[in-house]
Amino acid sequence: MNKTEFITIVGFALTLLFHMTQTEVCPPSCNCKSLGEMKGLHIDCSSRKLTEVPALPVNTKRLYLQNNSLTSVPPGALDTLRSLEEVKIFDNPWNCDCHILYLKLWLEDISAPSLANIRCATPAPLRMKPLRQLTGNELGVCKRLLPIKCLEFFWRDLILIAGAIITLILVAWTLKFSKKLVCQINLSQYYSRG
Fold first, then answer.
1. What residue ranges in 14-168 does DSSP mark as E strands?
2. pLDDT digits (tens, 9 = 90+) for 111-138
3. Is the pTM of this model over 0.70?
């Protein structure tokens, strides 16, 4: 076994170990039930007076966070829950300022029915208004709607796209030039024979 194979195997083993430990950890303030082998977890964190969303296993299928003291969800906190099928997050005192935008957008993508049950608690003009009905004007002026990481990815992706376009243009130009060159070589050989 060479060094590269060893590093690959060790990296795979560490990734597998990290994945196994990350997916099996139940938050201490919640009740967790297995939905069967390879089917994920039912995480019930309802009515626990939670003020923030706990770290959740990536294989969470059902998540119950209703009737707590959650006011917002930090951007990215729920992004690892790719296999989520059901979420209940109503009956929390949601503060509907620009910090609620992440939760609103995430629920629009993952669970529109859950979004229908969420109502704002603050600020006063938005009290009891459904989160899904909020407009940009009601959320107020946000200095930064996207996390810095998203902006970094945007610029990186923009540079990669520009690089790909420039590469395609250079390849097309090279092919066109090489075709002309081949034609000129063929013609010069034809005239030199004749």
1. 31-34, 41-44, 60-64, 86-88, 94-95, 120-122
2. 888 898 999 999 999 999 999 998 877 7
3. no
